[in-house]
Amino acid sequence: MTAHDPASRPAADRQGYHHGDLRRALLAAAVEAIEESGAAAVSLRDLARRAGVSHAAPAHHFGDKAGLLTAVAVEGFELLADALNATWERTDDVAEVGVAYVRFGLTHRGHFEVMFQPSLCHDDAADLVAARARAAESLYGGADVLTARAGNEDRQIAAWAAWSLVHGFTTLQLGGALALPPDADPDGVARQVVTFLAK
Hints:
Layout: H1 11-18, H2 22-37, H3 44-51, H4 56-62, H5 65-90, H6 94-107, H7 109-115, H8 126-150, H9 155-174, H10 186-198
Organism: Streptomyces sparsogenes DSM 40356
Domain HTH tetR-type: 20-80
Keywords: DNA-binding, Transcription, Transcription regulation
């Protein structure tokens, strides 16, 4: 069995190449590494080891660490937009959309850590700009509802207020600062917080 024999490569490597899915496997490994140790500790070499591929594979797909984290951020914004849009399709309740944001952040910690740190990424990358704009437009749906209720035209302020609320709650919870009881349901608490201020 030679080094060029597909059967001699690690399972993750063989599976990635077989399915044409190596980039996806590398992104998944990156998110896992970020959740474990933070974005600062991620390296392309460790990423290759986690995915069971050659050291050159991550660089081939992402160029450098900033390119990798840009791809993580793009994926995160796309997932966030999908989650918010799916919620808007079910309801026009701003509280539920806020809960969807919080739920996304708490269940996609690796993405969330990178998405709002422009210094980690190629911040002007076209795919990142587009994904960020798509997620922002989903958030603006809540601003439209809030401004209609308040009877004013300041959509931007409403968007910032709504985003600050749900993003702040998510960040505090991820950092352990809220100190919710062990049996507390973060979704339920987030719903109460958003409803309290959206009355």
